[in-house]
């Protein structure tokens, strides 16, 4: 089964509604922006330089 990928807005929504959710992936940027997100992360993703280049291409 695949795990969910949570961004900052989704984690804030989950925490504000006190929802129980399966743990999933989140980025280090989300953890920096909203530290409580670490409770919902089974794995923290660290973007690489090529990820930023790809984002700019989109």
Question: Can you give a write-up of this model?
Answer:
The protein has helices at 8-16, 28-33, 49-57, and strands at 5-6, 24-27, 41-45. Helix content is 41%, strand content 19%. It has 3 helices and 3 strands; from the N terminus they run βαβαβα. The model has no long low-confidence stretch (mean pLDDT 86). It has 58 residues and is an alpha/beta fold. The protein has a 3-stranded parallel beta sheet. The chain has one domain. Strand 2 (24-27), helix 2 and strand 3 form a beta-alpha-beta unit.
Helix content: 40-55%
Low-confidence stretches: none
Major sheet description: 3 strands, parallel
SS field, number of helical segments: 3
Would you list the SSEs in sequence order as H and E?
A: EHEHEH
Q: How many structural domains can be distinguished in the coordinates?
A: 1
Spatial order of strands in the largest sheet: 1-2-3
Number of strands: 3
Please state roughly what percent of the residues sit in beta strands, choosing from under 5%, 5-15%, 15-25%, 25-35%, 35-45% or over 45%: 15-25%
Q: Average pLDDT, to the nearest integer?
A: 86
Summing up helix and strand content along with how strands pair, one would put the structural category as alpha/beta
Principal-axis shape: elongated
Indicate the multimeric state.
single chain
Q: Gap between N and C termini, in Å?
A: 28 Å
Rg from Cα: 12 Å
